[in-house]
Amino acid sequence: MGLSIGHGLGIPFQKSTSWSSYCTPLTITTAQITGGTRVNWTSQCTSEDGFEIWASIDGGDYILVDTVGEDVLSYDDMTDYGISSVTYRVRAYKGTVYSDFTESGQVANIDSDLTTYITGLATPLSDNQKIRLNTFVKSLKTGLAITNLSEYFDTLYILAGETEESALKNLAKNAHHCTAQNSPAFVQYEGYTGANTKYLDTNYNPSSQGVRFTQNNASYGVYSRTNGDTLNTPIGHYDATKYAFMRLRSSNASYGHLNTNGTPYNNPPCTDSRGMFINTRDGAAISNAYFYINKTNNTTRINTGNTVGLVNNNIYILCRNGNGTAEAFDTSHQISFAFTGKYLTTDERDILVDSFEAYMDANGKGVIA
């Protein structure tokens, strides 16, 4: 692994067996900090000159990152490794004598949005899951040319998560986390399926809490892993005069409402409800509303009518919220992703889909009936 280098000074590698064993760092832990990774270790050694911190990027040879002095048991690595996995090694040294290495687990150079997302989780995510999520976030930010997810989204739920706790957490903001009502079925890395009275409450009311999602500049959507023909709805809400919900496939057509009076027109054909479905609009008129279906019918004008205002209640997933009552429970679709935010162009919708499907593929799932 290229470890014959001395302590960065061209000094031949040597070690004393007894000293190296005694002064080998006992444990290494890592923690995400703003802009980098904090590497912590413990040591029983009291006679070292200092410690070396080494890193392996994506499983490559280890390189010397830096050295610290005696009794220092922490190092902040602020190197931007891009979308990479990093494994750290630390060893003590005294003159030209070195201890053995102690190795960390694999960690990612975590994006700032993901750092906020994983902070406070009662059950920590695995390093591999952090890397997969990190790749998704950075891919989305790069494609949309944004610094923070909240520039485009009010809510963004990776329902196909590693844990239920993380699946229900809003990745775009540290608020509006979902709560599971009546225990909908969760499958790791696949998502949620509802039945009877089971659904997810987003705890998000765009009428009073929307920042990106507004009356004439809005989008919402879900990613379905299953194909089913049903009148029921996987996401949305409405009141007596204002509608914002969709049906993925009903009598082989898709139905969408977005801040309108609830009368859909020109519903596009759909014979397969697997993939991403997005309802979006960038103006008050009929001509500004579009349905995006699986990248196969992605600019269909849905003609839901001119906007009439925002619905004043929470959005539900796996059913719709009708004036505070959960109804039209979707028992046909397994939903792995959901979001709300500003209007998305066709290219931006493709970026969202491609980024999320890469995440699903990294988990070995993809689009599966």
CATH architecture of the largest domain: Sandwich
- The span between the termini is 43 Å
Q: What is the 3D form? A: elongated
Number of domains: 2
Overall number of strands: 24
Number of helices: 6
Largest sheet: 8 strands, antiparallel
- Give helix % range: 10-25%
Please state roughly what percent of the residues sit in beta strands, choosing from under 5%, 5-15%, 15-25%, 25-35%, 35-45% or over 45%: 25-35%
CATH topology of the largest domain: Jelly Rolls
CATH first level of the largest domain: which class? Mainly Beta
Global mean pLDDT: 89
Characterise this structure:
With 369 residues, the chain is of the alpha+beta class. It folds into two domains: 17-108, Sandwich (Immunoglobulin-like), CATH 2.60.40.10; 112-362, Sandwich (Jelly Rolls), CATH 2.60.120.200. Helices cover 15% and strands 31% of the residues. It is built from six helices and 24 strands. It has helices at 17-23, 112-118, 127-144, 164-167, 206-209, 346-362; strands at residues 28-33, 36-41, 50-57, 62-69, 74-77, 85-94, 97-98, 102-108, 153-157, 179-181, 185-187, 191-193, 199-201, 218-224, 235-238, 243-247, 255-256, 275-281, 289-293, 300-301, 316-317, 320-322, 325-327, 334-341. The strands form four sheets. Strands 9, 11, 12, 14, 18, 19, 20 and 24 form an eight-stranded antiparallel β-sheet that branches. Strands 10, 13, 15, 16, 17, 21, 22 and 23 form an eight-stranded mixed β-sheet that branches. A hairpin with a 6-residue loop joins strand 19 and strand 20 (300-301). Helix 3 (127-144) packs antiparallel against helix 6. It is elongated and about 80 Å long. The two termini are 43 Å apart. 44% of the residues are buried.
